[in-house]
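Sample A.
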Amino acid sequence: MEIIGYIAAIIAALAFVIVVIYFVITLKVAKQTLHNVANTLESLDKQMQGITDETTQLLTKTNKLADDMNQKSTKLNGLFDGARGIGETVKDFNQSLKQLTNSVSKAAEKDPEKTSQAIRWGSALIDIWKKK
């Protein structure tokens, strides 16, 4: 019976050694896995830093572009205001020409003889001016 006790103790010791060996192997595999995870996270951190830097640069450029667009828009507003002023000036000039034309027409209708004399004098002046 004593031998059975020794055999049982040896089997138990061998089982304990086998369990310890598998536990050590499992810990080594877990260590390698954790090392790979750490490397992956380190690489991911570097990539995220690069993305952050590029995003910051892109935002800076976008803000500069938006400021430039606002400045140009403001300048264009001034240009359109100036064009509107020119349009109003041309409109006023056209009205003045219409009034002058109406005045000349009325004067020509009142005194056709003076009108024809004025036309002759105008033609003579134009001929003299062209000869110069």
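Sample B.
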Amino acid sequence: MSQNIIVTSTESSDPIKQYEIALANYSFLWIVYFRGHWCPFCMSYLKTLQSLLPSIGGAGGKVLIVTAEPATHLPATRKATGYVGEAVVDPEHKLATMLKEKGLLDVQITKKAGYEFGVAQPAILVQKGRGAGEGEILFDWVIVPRTMNLGGAKDRPDLTQIWDNVQAKLQGKPVVHAQYSLTSFTGMIWSKIFG
């Protein structure tokens, strides 16, 4: 399946405009914040997200991955994960700020060397786009970095289970999963070793 790869940054595009265009042109928008190419949990998460792209696109959805990491690292991210969808580079957290101001998602920003304005911690927002129910939140999640989740690295909800629930909501059915399995350290290592 051939998909257009669109890589943008604050120098070439406005992250807020990118969000607004996607929301206006698709039935729903799926946003995944990731920390950077150096985070094995993020890379594992994006691999899983890549496997869901055809199904999400087939249902009329659009996926955007968002990072505060410099755009020069996106090729490494794509190589490590196989992710071919659209990416938003937002080092100044313009999109995160707007989402928080609108009460949609409160992405946690923490200090980290190499990130002038801080690193955006993992977060997910799935929101209805054009058509009936526009703007309705289908799923939202943010990690609050703590020692127990390795500073925001682990304990992420299972993307496949999230997609199951989003599909159910889109079809007006009850959710499939009352609780989500969380990414553990051993689970991430297992997936890196055995694919």
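B remarks: Residues 1-12, 185-195 have pLDDT under 50 and may be disordered. The radius of gyration is 16 Å.
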